[in-house]
Amino acid sequence: MIAVTAAEEGLMVCHTCGLLSAPSATDHHPVCPRCGAGLHMRKPDSINRAWAYLIAAAILFIPANVLPVMVTGAIFGTQSDTIMSGVVYLWTSGSWPLAAIIFIASIMVPGSKLLALFFLLVSAQRRSTWKPLERTKLYRVVELVGRWSMVDIYVAAILTALVQFQALATIKAGPGAIAFGAVVVLTMFAAECFDPRLIWDPLLRRADG
Amino acid sequence: MSVPSVIACHECDLLQRETSLPPGGKACCRRCGAVLYRNKPDSSDRTLALMLGAAVLFVLANLNPVVGLETTGNRSSTTLFGTVRVLHEQDMTSVAVLVFATTILMPALEIGAMLYMLLPLKLGWVPNGLPAMFRLVRTVRPWGMVEVFMLGTLVSLAKLSHIAAVLPGVALWSFGALMFVLAAAAASFEARDFWAQVEAIRHGRQNRDAVTGVTEAVR
Q1: How many domains does chain A fold into?
Q2: Do B135 and A3 touch (CB under 8 A)?
Q3: Which domain holds residue A12?
Q4: Which of A86, A190, B24, B206 could cross-link A54 (Cys pair, CB 3.0–4.6 Å)?
Q5: Contact criterion met (CB < 8 Å) for A181 and B98
Q6: ipTM passes above 0.95
């Protein structure tokens, strides 16, 4: 298959509206003639920016799991729950479907998202030609599932707002929730910065060469 | 300068020719399989109808309590904004901002911007700043998390049902419906048809201006 990309022909596809256009070579900041978004051959500094977000997210993933996300105050004292201890509590108290939802959304998804982005970045940086289709699919999955990690933040938020019976029980969101929210946002930025076309670029050069 | 009938895949940059599609069909990139465009009959009309519905549901979902809780003698209930306020009062401002942005601000911007573009188009004119609105929708969309919030609410309800009587509020049902309506609107919107419509209206106006220009010249 002789594949020709837009970049090789000097054409640029708009990230926002999808229009293919041919900006003049002298124009240093071309914009899309249809929707006015800035045009780039590839997302600028894609790999570096994605690394920055990813590293920050990986660091914050530690406090997100170690610090309590929810602090329950009752008559008999307070109890702090991290994400994992919350899952364990749900599991042992018999609510295993809830335990599974929280475990998947809050631990499995962000953990595997960090690993997947790490793998995508390393392989794109090394200009790997290994299984580009599968790596593109992996990228799509990463983009799709990341948002579901927010579940735990919403649970903490709603419980905080609802359980405010001064004498009996109060629930507060803990510092872990801040770190956890930051992990979700940072990994979403990292996925957005990454340009999936970088997966395919090395393939072409090799075919040509 | 645009190049008609040749398009590039937005995910792998491969150049390929457009083909015509049967209604309901979709064109995928032949190299990476990304969906390039779809043939959705009446996509703009359907999106407009769904967005109007979404606007109504969004207002309902924000004015009513999401859930209430009742234990012996104690009652509490919260609206979505109430949740944000309590988080803020507990010095969890960053979490409050995150909840506010993803469940109120971003969906509101998306619905508002879509209506701002689609209503005038339906009436046959192109609103000012349409390209900027289109870019806004594209930026905002990944950050609206109504469906995730819905799951979070259900999980908290299930957690609380052990301790107290849980009273689902009007907003809970509204959010549930909003989730489906927004998903349907996103599925029925087709950027390619949208821009074709914008271009057709602009061209129509140009032609009309050209014609009137000629008649004036003749006079």
Answers
A1: 2
A2: no
A3: 1-41
A4: A190
A5: yes
A6: no
